[in-house]
Amino acid sequence: MLLGVAGGLGERLGVDPVLIRVAFAVLAIAGGSGVVLYLLAWAVSVEPEDDPAGPRPVRRPAARQAFALGLVVLGTLLLLREVGLWFGDQIVWPIALAAAGSAVIWARSDDRDRARWARIPGNPIEAMFTGRVGLIRIVVGGLLVASGLGLGFANTGADLAAAGNALLGVAITVIGLGLIFGPWATRLVHQLAEERRGRIRSEARAEMAAHLHDSVLHTLALIQRADASPEVVGLARRQERELRAWLYRAPVPPEGRLRLAVEAIAGRVEQRHNVPVDIVVVGDAPLDDAGRALVDACQEAAFNAARHSGSPLVSVYVEVEPDELTGFVRDEGKGFDPDQVPTDRRGIADSIRGRIRRHGGSVSIVSSPGEGTEVQLRLPRSQG
Amino acid sequence: MIRVFLVDDHHFFLSGLRAELGSEFEIVGEAGEVDAAVDGIRRTRPDVVLLDVHLPGGGGKAVLEAVRQTDQDIRFLALSVSDAAEDVIGVIRAGARGYVTKTISPPDLAAAIRRVQADDAVFSPRLAGFVLDAFHGDLTGVVDPELDQLTAREREVLRHIARGFTYKEVARRLHLSVKTVETHVSSVLRKLQLSSRHELTRWASDRRLV
Questions:
Q1: Which residue from B61, B69, B66, B62 is spatially nearest to B86, judged by alpha carbons?
Q2: What is the DSSP letter of B99?
Q3: Which of A217, A378, B88, B172 has CB atoms 3.0–4.6 Å from B81's, for a disulfide?
Q4: Under 8 Å CB-to-CB from A331, ≥6 apart: which residues?
Q5: Please, how many CA atoms are within 13 Å of residue A384, restricted to the half-sphere of its CB?
Q6: Which of B133, B163, B173, B188 to mutate to test the interface with A (most CBs of A within 10 A)?
Q7: pLDDT score, position A207
């Protein structure tokens, strides 16, 4: 966390860095030797070369390792006590026990808890130092804790008259801890409440979606089957499409996906020409330059078919294959002889061709009079 | 005359269907919820059941599962306003021989009923797309290679259906007989119903709505 010594040691020894950190911290309390050791280790350590294979898997601390390390620390503590590098029994032992306890809690918590802690701004230590009044709060809190502990320990073992002072010490300590860890704790509570609210919201939304599905979607389907005017049918179709898109969209809208971009073509063509467009997309990919070119070309072909072919329906099919994107835009309209393309259609065909060829793809147009038209597009997928 | 049973909980829609289909088919009964549908179908033994996917009391899937325990030879055509992929795949895997949306035109619906009665599968472009999607991607977790992937021919047929071609047009373009196209589609339907392909379930749950 500071200079990476604990992390490095942990990786080398195959021990959870948290345990190493706790060990350093406990030794630091015991006469400051941990600080000296830490700096020494940093001085002799070498910066690891960048591992091209990526970060190594985090090793889970085994109970045996933790126990062994605990013994090592305990032994060192006893040694230091004999040598005289010692703050005194009353201070070192409680703090060492507290540190060990915290480590056990951390090690025993499962991954989900830990992931949740991690999402709360950093951890308690990091949270302490963030925020505007962070430093002042820490200093005041730290002083309170220290004086509280001092007051408490100074009076332990004394007569009953001192018990009041000990209680005062405890109170001051609690206030100090509250100052240090309070913001983190409130954020934790806040975040849990937020999660619960989110869950309630999504349940309410699912209920509403089920209701809309059973009522409004049916009405819109009925209108499309009835002998209504083309405008009304077109309106019902559009509303159905929009409602369906809202009902079935992913919880988090995936921005810039090819599938969504292709599906959006239908609304635009129907709005302008009132010709229904059937869209089928197989597979999905992020919307890159090649994908955008394909979507634009499909849309242009669909506009073209809706405007000129007289077909009651335009079908768009797009498939994402491992190495290429394919698109097919088809109508059942009057068709034309590809050798005698009407000039008004040639211009558009050329612009579709240009778009696709710029990305290394190919276009073919299959049509004959009375048989409808299909524009076929192929585009290599850009790598990376 | 083909005997048809209607299952739908929307009375407007039901009366619309009755009016459209009444002249061409014999409507032997109708029901608006699961238990009544199961009873009615067992009693009247129709050729084809038009089944709404969304029904109070367990959905169309519950009707399919109950009836198919006792009567294997009654054909089901699923009908829905919903295009949610999991609805489609769920009802097909429960045994329906086809799936159409409620916006289908009356003549197309009549043709679909006849096709199902003749034991063929009814694949709309959208259903073909869903199926291609379901069998898309790598084959990790595959148990039975014969069931868990489509042949190149089946894939080609499905692609053409997804592009909006009728069975007849697909046959002409691929130089096959219509019967062969129908065989390919039925084979895809069988794979969809029997495959334990890991992707099918994961894919359906990815698209879960409620």
A1: B61
A2: E
A3: A217
A4: A305, A306, A309, A311, A313, A314, A315, A372, A373, A374
A5: 0
A6: B163
A7: 80
| Res. A380: pLDDT tops 80 | yes
For chain B, the helix, strand and coil percentages under 3-state DSSP, each to the nearest 5: 55, 15, 30
Do A125 and A64 lie in one domain? The reply is: no
pTM: 0.62
What's the pLDDT band for A53 if we cut at 50, 70, 90?
very low
Domain B1-119 has CATH 3.40.50.2300: yes
Q: What value does the mean pLDDT take over residues A260-278?
A: 87
Q: What is the pLDDT of residues A214-256, one digit of tens each?
A: 788 888 888 887 777 888 888 888 888 888 777 766 555 556 7
Give the separation between CA B143 and CA B135, rounded to whole angstroms: 14
Structural domain count, chain A: 3
Residue A17: pLDDT above 70?
A: no
User: Pick the residue with more confidence: A258 or A13?
Assistant: A258
User: By residue range, what is the domain housing residue A199?
Assistant: 121-249
Identify the burial level of A213 via C-beta atoms within 10 angstroms of its C-beta, where 0-12 means exposed, 13-18 middle and 19 or more buried. Answer: buried
The mean of the pLDDT values for chain B is: 85
Contact state of B106 with A225 under an 8 Å Cβ cutoff:
yes
Chain A hits for B10, Cβ within 8 Å: 218
| More confident: A125 or A51 | A125
- Which fold is adopted by the domain B121-210? Arc Repressor Mutant, subunit A (1.10.10)
Asked if residue A372 and residue A319 are part of one domain, the reply reads yes
- Mind telling me how many Å the CA of B47 is from chain A's nearest CA? 25
pLDDT given for residue A366 in this prediction: 87
Helix, strand, or coil (residue A334):
coil
Which residues are CB-contacts of B168 (< 8 A; sequence separation ≥ 6)? Answer: B178
pLDDT tier for residue A302 given thresholds of 50, 70 and 90: very high
